[in-house]
Amino acid sequence: MAWVNAIIQGILTGGLYALFACGLSLMFGVMKVVNLAHGDLAVVAGYVAIGIIAATHVPVLWSVVVVVPVMAVAGYVLQRTLIQSALNRGVLTTLIVALGLSMVIENGLLQFFSADTRGIGAGMSLVTSSFSLGSQIQIGWLLVVIFAVAVAVLLGLQYFLSGSRYGRLIRAVADDQEAAQLSGADYRHVFGIAAALALGTVALGGIAYGMYSDLDPTTGTDTILLFAFVAVVIGGLGSLWGTLLGGIVLGVAQQIGAQINISDELLAGYIVFLAVLVLRPQGLTARRAQS
Amino acid sequence: MSLVTDTAARQATGWRVTRSHRNVAWTGAGALAVVVVLALFPYIVYSGTTAILVQAFIVLTLASMWNLMAGYAGLVSVGQQAFVGLGAYFVLILAIHGTSPFAALPVAAVACGVAALPMWWLVSRLRSGYFAIATWVLAATVMLFIERFSSIGGGTGMPLPGFTGFNPTLLTAYTYWAGLAVTVLAMLGVYLLLRSRLGLVLTAIRDDEVAARTSGARVGLARMLVFVVAGVGCGAAGAVLAISQLQVQPDAVFNVQWTAEMAFATIIGGLGTIEGPIIGTAVYMVLQQTLASYNAWYLIILGLVAILIALFARRGLWGLVDERLHLRLFPVGYWLRTENGNGRPRSLRR
Prior knowledge:
- The structure holds 2 protein chains of 2 kinds.
- Chain A is mainly alpha-helical.
- Helix content of chain A is 77%, strand content 3%.
- Chain A has 12 helices and 2 strands; from the N terminus they run H-H-H-H-H-E-E-H-H-H-H-H-H-H.
- Chain A has a two-stranded antiparallel ribbon.
- Chain B is globular and about 65 Å long.
- In chain B, 45% of the residues are buried.
- At the A-B interface, helix 3, helix 4, helix 10 and helix 12 of A face helix 7, helix 13 and helix 15 of B.
């Protein structure tokens, strides 16, 4: 029964990982940039939420309503200023700027907030309560809510990308940037929108992670960025629902690993990632092999 | 030295291909003098200074390797800390079994080169950004794997055995010389590599990969060799790290900070030049020493400076010097020299 519990837990954490991963996948699909600061920006969102809660004593979920749009706007600004100027100068510059941003954010948080871990909503009933299926399966409400939110976010993104005008522009620019420009799209504005979406979703993921576990300055890279990347690769580059599948596979692998040996949780996830990289590098959802 | 056979037409116009603009014997002698002076340091300066220099040697070796990978082969790896850690742990494993850590150093470096092969096989299919994060995940995997073994310290690390009975002054001197030797060999290795045919292939890849492939360059093989050489270099630096710290802790040796430091030192100094990492390491050490008491500040400033230089001075600080003075301490390029009507040599640089 512990195994069933573990697998259910793994599936539900897949939702959290999908929140981490969809932004990374979106930024790479549209702008061809791997944002190494992706996770650190999520941690910043978490810290901002903590600050807002501490300063104004609003309920935790209200901080989400404030922080996510703020981070989305920040993402737009960041893209149009820093990341665009790096993109104009080439792939290597973009990676260096992203790495620099990641280091600056992490060490800035370390310097101003110390290395202590912080949680969000520690005493909330949402965080601590759980329900039972049968007599031996215990499921925490928080993870169920996070999974539902992740599915809602992915549905929203899918609807936005397929139905709305900006969604079509994003897909056009992702497919062929120059052709989209010929059709009159301002690709920099479109990039900004994509970055705003990416940062909004990862901010949500960061706050969710702060409620599910704890945040510290290194969580951005150690946990969020690496898990997001692993989920994207396992699920398949360029597929939004693939990030959910990848997140679920990662979560289940981790929980099975933890059942075998408690300290092997992370290692199990990474071994599955390496196996996918070797056996099916295009990911589980892609239909043809990528070059 | 001419790489072009002299035909009658060429002899008539007086074209010559040389490896350097000025006489390199002087810079070679200068470099040798610098190394000799550095080697004498343990007799001249206090152990505090040699300890700082050992740190500088480690960073310089790492930066030279990262420069080789990113500046010449186009491989941006954010996972080189895997080799730093593996180098340290190979020394630890050998020391536990009775070998002197100093004797273990070259073995550890070679072992890291061997370990680089399966790692390359895993990540070589990926490109640029995804290659970068994949190497990071790989490094995290290596660390997690090593942490499983409590016989080599598990998650908390352990002190490095093999130093009992060592005179402390002698130990710092030997550590210093080991660091100096590793750095000199690393830079010499990079210099010779880039002067060789492999260097020509790498420069071609750096300039235009597709054109290099169509000219017949074996890009995949060249990249793999560079990855392995960088693994050896970073492993050797990790071995020196273990010896200088007298202990091996996974969080310290597998920290991604090593990659950030070597990347930033290279970018600030100048990517794609051998002199760049030297300048970058100097900047890094100055920042670290002056801001040491402010903990994370030197990394914040290092990161900001690296971002600014990547955006606004792409060839780094050495690139700024190079553009004005056309100075190359390590001649690895090709110069085309001709005589114009007045008989003075004109040089076109490539």
